[in-house]
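Subject: sequence -> structure tokens, single chain

Hey, anyone have a minute? Need the predicted structure for the following. Not urgent.
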Amino acid sequence: MKQVIFIHGYTSSPNNKKYRILKEDLDRVGIDYSIPALSGGENPHSEDWLEIINREVKNSKDPVVLVGHSLGTRAVLLYLDKFGKKVDTVILIASFNNDCKLNRGRKDEHYPDFFDYAINIDKVKKLPISSLLYIPKTMTQLTTAKVNKLPKN
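Reply:
Had a minute. Here:
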């Protein structure tokens, strides 16, 4: 069995409607998951998010599937770049690009420390990750049919 860890986007939370629906679907098909509440609200800090992601990965007894949405994709990549931990699969939904100068000014600079430096993408690509998937759509455009296709073991 694998554990799916969802890293939500800017100002979202596990209580957001899309995550409540996702929880129902994952419970129905028996997939182990966590959707941690990431701190900071409208002014999140990357180090706080990375500590939470690291705790979630460390606490998993099973291979980890990291799923990031929007700002959560940046957090997932920062985590992999900083910690270099082994995860089974990485799924990035509606990802940011790696242009720090461009992205530091987004959303009135509410989350600039997520873009303090460019992620070493080559380093991340060399990590022992079974699959790295990029989905250039928003979370709300994904259907539950795609959730049903996640492997159970």
